[in-house]
TrEMBL record:
Record protein name field: Xylose isomerase-like
Keywords: Isomerase
Keyword hit for Isomerase: yes
GO function term, MF aspect, one: xylose isomerase activity
Xref: InterPro entries: Xylose_isom_bac, Xylose_isomerase
PANTHER family assigned: PTHR48408, XYLOSE ISOMERASE
GO biological process: carbohydrate metabolic process
Domain of life: Eukaryota
Organism: Solea senegalensis (Senegalese sole)
Length: 490
């Protein structure tokens, strides 16, 4: 195998071209890596990462159909394919301009017939990964162990009713942590896809939760022993493949960690497609984890809210990315975590070029979200309105509640002496929604429109708006705007 072999021939480094038209899909129109916003480059705010399993191991197979994606790197025996796949991946990372990647142990190197053989495969492939990392400067955002695919894990790994399986998982995890150290991973993720149950009748939930906590404690101990400096993350998901998964959502995991005294050793990796499967809105768990100081990283994807399963689509909705980036900015960034595209091209997307188009579109969507979030925070309208909404806690009895010194007796005295006038506060949801909506859609339009003046025709422009489903709001703005400015697109 030649390491010089080019898998994405004809595609060079993806440029930033803000004046490109909507038909130009092989460039960034919004993501400008070096541009500084609120004292930090876009690259540092967003910390994009490409996931190995979907983009380089995905076959397009689903429960109803066979493989549709035939990739040129899959040639030769499994180890030869693994090396070619790695070279293809690094060619992709560098051409896309992304500094991080994520992988499972078993998608980086094939599982052998024994643990020893699996570990040897992993050693050999990660030697090449280390070499490619040094050559390109691309780093590991996080590593994770696949403790769910092999049949031995069908009843769980850390929560398996058979201790021998838990032991196998522990041995596999030990090697995974060694690999994380070898490759300088900045985080290590635990996703418990099989940690849950189908039926309460055959499950000792209390024992399983304790075993899982003890499994995590062993991981913490080994991490400290080998001097591994990465952040541990747990990724919640409510169901699929299990009927009930223990790491249901952000609040369930935070409760579990606090109950077992693990909260100082772990943060959360939030995947919004899992959040919506749990019945919450897109940004819900990102916000909840952040509020508890537990937001460590984000798996940047989306689902189809009309479906009941995990579709791992590329995020293309600027409303969602705006809300995520607002939280990220407010907590001072995601580092050492990042935005990992745990997303896959559809099985009908068989061209290699689609891997680029999907990632570029998603990166631009997050760049637009970042710009919107910066505007929302900098103009302060929402912050001021929130402050006003809670203003009764800034003085008197409210201040005492705020600092924890108030008592029920204080409350009674205040009410009895008429010192408290209970006002019926207008719940101004519409005002907040309106301000946020204006920031997301209309300000985006101004940018789009400036570009339009230079480059694209009115027909293209309307097409762009229609494709983003923003036409009604934007047409209104356009009419107002054109009254007061010289506009070539009447
Ligand atoms: Mn998913």
């Amino acid at each position: 195998m030649s390491e010089q072999e080019e898998f994405f021939a004809g595609i060079s480094k993806i440029p930033y071209q803000p004046t490109a038209g909507p038909g130009d899909v092989m460039c960034f129109k919004h993501y400008n890596a070096e541009e500084v916003l609120m004292g930090r480059t876009m690259e540092d705010w967003l910390r994009f990462s490409v996931c190995y399993w979907h983009s380089f191991c995905g076959t397009g197979a689903d429960p109803f159909g066979f493989q549709t994606l035939h990739r040129p790197w899959n040639k030769g025996n499994p180890m030869e394919s693994a090396k070619r796949r790695l070279c293809a991946a690094f060619e992709f990372f560098t051409k896309l301009g992304v500094k991080y990647y994520t992988f499972h142990d078993r998608d980086m190197a094939p599982e052998g017939s024994t643990l020893k053989e699996s570990n040897m495969n992993l050693d050999e492939i990660t030697d090449l990964a280390l070499q490619l990392q040094k050559q390109t400067g691309v780093k590991v955002l996080w590593v994770t162990c696949n403790l769910f695919a092999h049949p031995r894990y069908m009843n769980g790994a850390a929560t398996n009713p058979d201790c021998h399986v838990l032991a196998y998982a522990g041995a596999q995890l030990k090697k995974g942590l060694d690999i994380a150290k070898k490759l300088g991973a900045e985080n290590f993720v635990f996703w418990g896809g099989r940690e849950g149950f189908l039926s309460m009748h055959n499950t000792d939930v209390s024992a399983e939760l304790k075993h899982m906590a003890n499994f995590f404690k062993m991981a913490v101990k080994y991490k400290e022993k080998i001097g591994l400096k990465c952040q541990f993350l747990i990724e919640p998901k409510p169901k699929e493949p299990c009927r009930h998964q223990y790491d249901y959502d952000a609040m369930s995991v935070i409760g579990f960690l606090k109950h077992f005294g693990l909260e100082n050793h772990f943060k959360l990796n939030i995947e919004p497609n899992h959040t919506t499967l749990a019945g919450h809105s897109y940004e819900h768990d990102v916000v909840m984890a952040s509020v508890f100081g537990m937001l460590g990283s984000v798996d940047a994807n989306t689902g189809s809210p009309d479906l009941g399963w995990d579709t791992d689509q590329f995020p293309m909705d600027i409303r969602n990315t705006t809300m995520v980036m607002k939280t990220v900015i407010e907590q001072g960034g995601l580092q050492p975590g990042g935005l990992n595209f745990d997303a896959k091209v559809r099985r009908e997307s068989t061209d290699l070029e689609d891997l680029f188009i999907a990632h570029i579109g998603a990166m631009d969507t997050f760049a637009r979200g970042l710009r919107n979030a910066v505007r929302i925070i900098e103009d302060g309208i929402i912050t001021d309105k929130l402050k006003e909404r809670y203003s009764s806690f800034s003085h008197g009895l409210g201040q005492k509640v705020e600092d924890g010194s108030a008592t029920l007796e204080d409350m009674e005295v205040s009410v009895r002496h008429g010192g408290l006038q209970v006002k019926i506060l207008n719940q101004d949801h519409n005002l907040f929604d309106s301000v946020i909506g204006w920031k997301i859609y209309i300000l985006t339009f101004v940018v789009v429109e400036c570009i339009c003046h230079i480059k694209i025709t009115a027909a293209h422009f309307i097409h762009t708006l229609q494709s983003e489903d923003r036409l009604p709001q934007l047409q209104l703005y356009r009419i107002e705007h054109c009254k007061t400015h010289t506009c070539t697109m009447q």
